[in-house]
Design goal:
Number of domains: 2
Strand content: under 5%
Helix content: 40-55%
Structural class: mainly alpha
CATH class of the largest domain: Mainly Alpha
Strand order of the largest sheet: 1-2
Order of helices and strands: HHHEEHH
């Protein structure tokens, strides 16, 4: 059992439609259904009643899904708290040498885009500046 399968089951309970639930996770309905069946097999209970026309949550499915929601919320909270936590560790450093110097504007532009969505920070001192790794190389 994995968190992804729990998320899939929660989404199916919200949508009550395999196709729409699968779309929300950007996968096909058939592999989505395989994940649901595998989760039911692992738990040893039927979470959903299915017919060709409808999907319904079983009584035991409601109980399992309530616990699944609590688990997923706890995992999300744990992930969020660690992502933004203060750290005594130094920020990672990424070095770029050689032939990519002429692509530095594009690299800086791409890194700035990534930085807006993650904690990545790029500090690109000019070659020859005291902070540049190249300034420490013997001539």
């Amino acid at each position: 059992m994995d968190i992804r399968s729990l998320r899939y089951a929660i989404t199916l309970a919200e949508e009550l439609h395999f196709g729409r639930a699968a779309q929300r996770h950007y996968i096909g309905a058939q592999p989505f259904g395989w994940h649901i069946k595998e989760l039911e097999r692992e738990l040893g209970v039927r979470l959903f009643e299915r017919t060709s026309r409808r999907v319904a949550v079983t009584p035991v499915g409601r109980r399992v899904l309530a616990e699944a929601r609590a688990i997923v919320e706890a995992v999300d909270a744990l992930t969020d708290s660690h992502r933004w936590a203060e750290s005594d560790e130094e920020d990672p450093t990424i070095g770029v040498l050689g032939g990519v110097v002429d692509k530095a504007p594009k690299l800086t532009e791409s890194t700035a885009m990534v930085s807006r969505h993650t904690s990545l920070y790029m500090d690109a001192p000019a070659i020859g500046s005291p902070r540049s790794p190249m300034s420490r190389c013997p001539a």
